[in-house]
């Protein structure tokens, strides 16, 4: 029995109404208990330029953000150094293929690389003939990468390793599924005994015949003898400009349009102990010669393929200013006395020379040898991370400050001490401000910088996030509170110069810190609501903040701001209104745009984007990566006075397209109209 045409139409109408209510087609007609008015001086006469630098990103090697993340290297522990310099050592995550009667695997210290002497020795006991026949697939070792390698059909992978052998070499190099099932790509490396009597570099290009996100790299043989292996690397060719950054994760960063990138930490820079802190000199030059290190705060080994050079390259590729955080002789548990800190100061000066020195300078020449003869645009350095309270911080800081200021007067130096409540007692160009807190507290901090002195060093809010139960693994609630905080920073961008969320990345297999902006595994990724929230601010850098005031009847859960910005794509000018409704009740927001010519806004081309969800604790996930993402719609009627329903628990953005030539520029004569 089918539905009649009439009942079908009624059903469709009902469905339409339900869909419309859910997606708020009828903005103005939806019931809202609360009223508010946002009055904006849209003339721009009282506007102020937001710093070009305001919103950027902070990359820390935490949660396998780099190793097993943005850095596309597929092999984990490629030099067999992760088990320490002593032998025998743990070769994890490498595993042996073959039984005790067919192969004996151990580490020794015969590598050709001076800074990382550990190599892998494979004594193959079986053979292709005789009475100890090797299994058909051979014996050897495999590396599962970082919780499985993502090998994709049609893509090319460059495998590089170093080998030595007592006899002829017959080594199969292959990508297979886990449990060795399925050959995705393979090649044979053959050579005579004399070819491999000394350490020899082998390079092979493998093209994948199939896709498997949980693959492994195998090195196997069926020939008796002894083989040594070292520095085994497998990189996809498909990385941004061949620079080694995993394409999909890199694109997520591009979409944020960050003005700067702070790196490489965080606590990663400090270490629990100084001996485990990141040291830039051990992370430049040929990758094979980098010793790697154990990051003892976040508890994992990095081969340091993503080193100081690569961070600078990443900044350049993102068109973002690099902000280098270096260790100032202070870790979580030990400190260098100020009287002995000069070698650390010299290390920082050398690092700046590496980034900026010309090709004839000692360290600039190493940068040039790595393929970047032109200097990197390093203009900001941070002396340590969260070390202000440490015994030697001020003393050490002053040594760094004096030396860097003398050698590089244009570099801006960032202190770890918070200058927002009391003025700094030492010279600095900026002070670092970190805030991890509950959603309510973060929301209330939208006004924190209203109360800060307007003179002196500016704030670098280099780490902010809602954490704890309000945030889960990245909730809408957290994103809303953070959005309010950022609106506050935007309004106070005369004293706040930079801001970045933390942490940026998490590999879902190693969640050391919750929540994070971008979640990934070997082949999937998604942005948390906080990631999408940040995109609402990506046009703010260099935009004009319009003077606005908000009058609300009974609600203090609303915060709003207005900017004008120019699209780099269509070169058109927009007024952008952002409003966070942190409460559970819809708000009828009346927007009055003063100082505009009549009809100076265009309905066509004006849009509304709303970040919300049915439950304020909703999160995205691999199975529902777009559960909480902005939904964009066209704005039907725009005008100098308009009403917008701001949904409960939402972050709403209105981009109102302006006719050109009708906005007065900040500081322009009040009777003059000019275009931006
Ligand atoms: O962002 C995570 C950590 O939080 C950073 O490493 C540290 O600076 C802060 O304590």
UniProtKB/TrEMBL annotation:
Its main location: secreted. It holds the Pfam family Alpha-L-AF_C. The keyword Hydrolase applies. GO terms for molecular function: alpha-L-arabinofuranosidase activity. It is found in: Secreted, Extracellular space, Extracellular matrix. It comes from the Eukaryota. GO terms for biological process: L-arabinose metabolic process. Its EC number is 3.2.1.55. Residues 462-650 form the Alpha-L-arabinofuranosidase C-terminal domain. It is an enzyme of class 3 (hydrolase). Keywords: Extracellular matrix, Glycoprotein, Hydrolase, Secreted, Signal. It catalyses: Hydrolysis of terminal non-reducing alpha-L-arabinofuranoside residues in alpha-L-arabinosides. Residues 1-32 form the signal peptide. Belongs to the glycosyl hydrolase 51 family. This is non-reducing end alpha-L-arabinofuranosidase.
């Amino acid at each position: 029995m089918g539905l009649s045409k009439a009942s079908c139409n009624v059903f469709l109408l009902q469905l339409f109404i339900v869909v419309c209510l859910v997606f708020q087609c009828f903005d103005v007609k939806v019931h809202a208990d609360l009223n508010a008015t946002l009055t904006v001086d849209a003339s721009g006469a009282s506007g102020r330029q937001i710093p070009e630098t305001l919103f950027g990103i902070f990359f820390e090697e935490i949660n396998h953000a780099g190793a097993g993340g943005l850095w596309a290297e597929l092999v984990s522990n490629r030099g067999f150094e992760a088990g320490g310099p002593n032998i025998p050592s743990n070769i994890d995550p490498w595993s042996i293929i073959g039984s005790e009667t067919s192969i004996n695997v151990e580490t020794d210290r015969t590598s050709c690389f001076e800074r990382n002497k550990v190599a892998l020795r494979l004594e193959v006991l079986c053979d292709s003939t005789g009475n100890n026949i090797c299994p058909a697939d051979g014996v050897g070792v495999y590396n599962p990468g970082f919780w499985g390698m993502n090998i994709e059909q049609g893509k090319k992978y460059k495998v590089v390793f170093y080998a030595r052998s007592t006899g002829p070499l017959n080594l199969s190099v292959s990508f297979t599924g886990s449990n060795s099932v399925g050959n995705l790509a393979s090649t044979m490396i053959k050579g005579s005994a004399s070819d491999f009597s000394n350490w020899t570099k082998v390079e092979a290009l493998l093209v994948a015949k199939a896709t498997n996100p949980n693959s492994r790299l195998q090195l196997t043989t069926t020939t008796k003898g002894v083989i040594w292996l070292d520095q085994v690397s497998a990189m996809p060719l498909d990385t941004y400009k061949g620079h080694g950054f995993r394409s999909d994760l890199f694109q997520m960063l591009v979409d944020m349009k960050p003005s700067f990138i702070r790196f490489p930490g965080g606590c990663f820079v400090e270490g629990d102990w100084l001996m485990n802190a990141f040291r830039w000199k051990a992370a430049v030059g040929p990758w094979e010669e980098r010793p790697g290190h154990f990051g003892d705060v976040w508890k994992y080994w990095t081969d340091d393929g993503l080193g100081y050079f690569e961070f600078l390259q990443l900044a350049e590729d993102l068109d973002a200013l690099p902000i280098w955080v270096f260790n100032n002789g202070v870790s979580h548990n030990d400190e260098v006395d100020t009287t002995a800190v000069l070698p650390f100061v010299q290390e920082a000066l050398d690092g700046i020379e590496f980034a900026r020195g010309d090709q004839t300078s000692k360290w600039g020449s190493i940068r040039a040898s790595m393929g970047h003869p032109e200097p990197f645009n390093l203009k900001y350095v941070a002396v340590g991370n969260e070390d202000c309270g440490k015994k030697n911080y001020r003393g050490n800081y002053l040594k760094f400050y004096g030396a860097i200021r003398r050698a590089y007067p244009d570099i801006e130096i960032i202190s770890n001490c918070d200058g927002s409540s009391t003025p700094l007692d030492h010279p600095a160009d900026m002070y670092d401000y970190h805030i991890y807190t509950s959603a309510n507290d973060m929301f209330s901090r939208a006004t924190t910088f209203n109360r800060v002195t307007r003179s002196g060093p500016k704030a670098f809010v280099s780490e902010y996030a809602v954490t704890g139960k309000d945030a889960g693994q990245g909730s809408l609630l957290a994103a809303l509170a953070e959005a309010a905080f950022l609106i506050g920073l935007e309004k106070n961008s005369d004293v706040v110069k930079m801001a970045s969320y933390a942490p940026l990345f998490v590999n879902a297999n190693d969640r050391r810190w919750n929540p994070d902006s971008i979640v990934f595994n070997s082949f999937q990724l998604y942005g948390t609501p906080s990631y999408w929230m940040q995109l609402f601010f990506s046009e703010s850098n260099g935009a004009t903040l319009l003077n606005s005031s908000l009058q609300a009847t009974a609600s203090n859960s609303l915060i709003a701001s207005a900017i004008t910005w120019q699209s780099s794509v269509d070169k058109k000018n927009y007024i952008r209104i952002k409003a966070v409704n942190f409460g559970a009740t819809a708000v009828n927001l009346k927007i009055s745009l003063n100082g505009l010519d009549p009809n100076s806004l265009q309905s066509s081309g004006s849009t509304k984007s709303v970040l919300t969800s049915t439950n304020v604790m909703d999160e995205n996930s691999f199975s529902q990566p777009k559960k909480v993402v902005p939904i964009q719609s066209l704005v039907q009627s725009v005008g100098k006075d308009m009403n917008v329903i701001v949904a409960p628990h939402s972050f709403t953005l209105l981009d109102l397209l302006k006719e050109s030539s009708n906005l007065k520029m900040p500081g322009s004569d009040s009777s003059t109209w000019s275009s931006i």
